[in-house]
Design brief:
733 residues; alpha+beta; Immunoglobulin-like; eight-stranded mixed sheet; seven-stranded antiparallel sheet; extended
Length: 733
């Protein structure tokens, strides 16, 4: 920048000029009279000069003095041509006009002539032309950040005169483009928007959901729910394929409605154990312009060995009996029971019943523990039992299901080390909960509607309808609210308190384990009319959901697991690693680094932090996946030279979708805000003409408001202080 002019200016009005002049004139006369009265004393003369100076400065302040400097940019004026290179620009929907029918071009192909220097050579005598591509942060093409592209251009070129924006307008990350446009308008930089692509969606079939469970058993059917959407004008029948990387495949016929979607499920029976990747694929059809979204994958862990489950309760209540019966009939579950009879000399006995609480060694055998209406008492649990249970969940990735009952024994656990594991704040004034003659109903939350844990029907709509129609319950626990970080899957449909609906089904993680709180003992009523259909399915899903982490990705020295188990783009993923020394002891401190490579190749390195003092061997961190698809995960530990490799499958839709319509509304808004124009290809000559006649930019101006500057105020205060001290010194009035 070159300084061209500087001057002192005033923002005055006739009133301020007249008033200021009168004040100064009056002060001069008064000061002269006082000086004369003091026989023209030098000290008094100095005081009166100071008085006049202060009054003059005050009068000037009324007229708002400013110091203005004008600068001319040394750089030549610049026009920036920004062209979009994000993934959506590969959409093939641009049809060139002409007498002969031509194959559609991709959006990128259609703008190839606009990013050639020769296109803008006619403007080269007046402007510097900068042709730049943009997509998102780091130059990756999996997202579009228009706002950052505009802001970066304004920051890079101080003498920016105009921006030519060539894009489909499909921004999906960063700040709204209107924010950057507003800043450009302030700088008087117009945006000439050059939209690319069709305003209507192309004919397409898309796999929008593939909700394979995280866990299954070999030789036992597994439900694989899926959703397919269509933008075809006609209904379409096809045969989809689900294929495992083990070589197994299933074909399934579906009828997809026109401009609609289908939700369905396929049964798959895995033949062997292991970790597999399942792929659901729609065969491409001629009507589609792209088959890039015809495939979705999901991981699943298949085990052969039985899950070991422990049921603990004080009395053989109905919920206890039916959970035990349901799990005992499950070929994939081995059930042990510990049944207290308060006041009785002996524990409940029989096949599968324990005679005492498991010790520290034997409790490690159990994958999931169902803790019913039992608590701290001489004939129930001890503080040592509770501490052992906490360590098992926290350090060994076990699941804990809390199932309070109307006797309120579980409330005694709130005064023990088990209290942090509760995902809810209990109402201590209601230890026995609430009963009602009118049955209560569950109501799924948004999280519950999406959760595989509460999926009792294969489609979301059917599942929501089922939960609303399940037989009600007549008792529920005294719960105030869910704790921070817990996930509420279902609430009471009608009962509320000061915090909102009463939560009934809540989950959370603690250390390496999972917690589920079931706030009613009436789920056994779901058997009415359908026997075990839903009751069996729910508790079977609970057992598997809470235990699969113990075997998800294991190594001799390290184990890695995460929550949520079925992450989606945008989720905050909690990473947990159990790390042992070469001697098999849990490490108290170590350097654990998780390296995650996304499908686009972007690498994230996360250093895990050690857990609390009672969680030796546990290291935690977070990761926020931005891309759907398979992520490669590598975990290393410098202390034991251990390394673990696994994969992480993230569900979700790509931000950049080939086939979506162009966002003309975004481009129009940018042109309108900046007082630019929308330009079509046929108007290219008009665009060059408009750019060549852009008015000269006014010099940049810096304004220093002296009257409002802190130094100006400080000067006045300092002068008035000196004047006051001087008057006291010479004895002036």
């Amino acid at each position: 920048m070159t300084l061209t002019n500087s001057e002192l200016t005033f923002v005055w009005t006739p009133t301020t000029v007249i008033l200021g002049s009168l004040i100064v004139a009056t002060t001069l006369i008064l000061s002269f009279v006082i000086w004369k009265r003091n026989q023209f004393s030098a000290s008094q003369g100095l005081l009166e000069f100071l008085r006049c100076l202060i009054v003059t400065l005050v009068a000037l302040t009324l007229n708002q003095p400013e110091w203005r400097e004008s600068f001319e940019p040394e750089e030549p004026p610049v026009i920036v041509v920004l062209h979009d290179v994000s993934g959506s620009m590969e959409t093939r929907d641009v049809v060139e006009s002409g007498p002969l029918e031509k194959e559609p071009k991709t959006r990128n192909e259609s703008i190839s002539h606009l990013i050639e220097e020769s296109t803008w050579s006619a403007l080269g005598e007046e402007f510097d032309i900068a042709i730049q591509s943009f997509s998102s942060e780091g130059g990756v093409t999996d997202a579009t950040d228009i706002s950052s592209a505009l802001s970066d251009a304004a920051e890079q070129f101080p003498n920016l005169r105009s921006v030519v924006l060539i894009s489909d307008g499909d921004w999906n990350t960063g700040s709204p483009p209107s924010q950057a446009a507003t800043q450009l308008r302030i700088r008087k930089v117009p945006v000439y928007a050059f939209p690319v692509g069709s305003e209507t969606r192309l004919p397409d079939l898309e796999v929008t959901a593939f909700d394979a469970p995280t866990f299954g058993l070999a030789n036992k059917p597994v439900r694989l729910p899926f959703t397919i959407s269509s933008s075809l004008a006609q209904a379409h029948s096809t045969t989809i394929e689900i294929q495992s990387d083990s070589g197994e495949s299933i074909n399934y016929s579906v009828d997809i409605p026109a401009m609609g979607k289908i939700q369905d499920a396929i049964l798959w029976t895995p033949k062997s154990e292991g970790t597999f990747k399942l792929s659901l694929k729609i065969p491409p059809i001629p009507e589609e312009h792209s088959d890039a979204n015809n495939l979705m994958t999901a991981p699943i862990v298949i085990r052969r060995e039985k899950l070991k489950v422990l049921l603990i309760d004080s009395f053989p209540r109905w919920e206890y009996r039916f959970i035990r019966n349901a799990l005992e009939r499950d070929p994939g579950v081995e059930v042990s029971c510990l049944l207290f009879h308060p006041g009785s000399e002996s524990l409940g006995g029989g096949i599968g019943y324990l005679t005492e609480f498991p010790n520290k060694e034997t409790i490690s055998e159990f994958d999931v523990i169902f803790l019913g209406d039992a608590g701290i008492a001489p004939d129930q649990l001890s503080f040592e039992n509770v501490a052992s249970l906490k360590q098992h969940v926290s350090n060994q990735a076990a699941g804990l299901v809390l199932m309070p009952g109307f006797r309120g024994y579980q409330q005694t656990l709130l005064e023990t080390s088990l209290e942090p594991l509760f995902p809810v704040i209990m109402d201590t004034t209601q230890p026995r909960g609430w009963g009602s003659s009118i049955p209560g109903q569950f109501e799924l939350t948004d999280l519950g509607a999406r959760s595989l844990l509460t999926r009792l029907e294969d489609t979301e709509n059917a599942n929501a309808t089922l939960w609303a129609s399940l037989p009600g319950f007549q008792w529920f626990a005294g719960v105030s609210r869910a704790k921070a970080g817990a996930e509420v899957l279902a609430t009471h449909s009608s009962e509320t308190n000061q915090y909102g609906r009463i939560p009934l089904i809540i989950t959370k993680t603690f250390g390496t384990g999972k917690i589920l709180f079931m706030g009613t003992d009436g789920a056994w009523r779901w058997r009415k009319g359908v026997e075990d259909k839903y009751h069996y399915r729910f508790w079977g899903q609970v057992a598997r959901w809470m235990s699969y982490q113990r075997n998800m990705a294991s190594d001799e020295l390290m184990r890695l697991f995460y929550s949520p188990d079925r992450p989606k783009t945008g989720d905050t993923l909690n990473l947990n690693a159990n790390v042992m020394s070469i001697g098999g002891e849990p490490l108290k401190s170590a350097t654990i680094v998780v390296r995650i490579v996304s499908p686009s190749g972007k690498v994230n390195s996360i250093r895990l932090q050690s857990g609390s003092e009672d969680q030796w061997g546990l290291f935690t961190g977070i990761f926020e996946p931005k891309e759907p698809g398979e992520h490669l995960v590598n975990v290393t530990c410098s202390e034991n030279a251990g390394m673990l490799e696994t994969t992480l499958m993230v569900q979700g839709t790509d931000l950049e979708v080939v086939g979506n319509p162009a966002r003309m509304d975004v481009m129009e808004e940018l042109a309108r805000i900046t007082r630019g124009k929308m330009i079509r290809d046929a108007d290219l000559d008009l665009l060059r003409s408009n750019l060549s006649t852009l008015p000269e930019r006014a010099p940049l101006e810096k304004r220093l408001r002296l009257w409002a500057h802190p130094l100006w105020i400080t000067l006045l205060i300092m002068l008035m202080t000196i004047f006051w001290i001087g008057r006291k010194t010479v004895g002036s009035v």
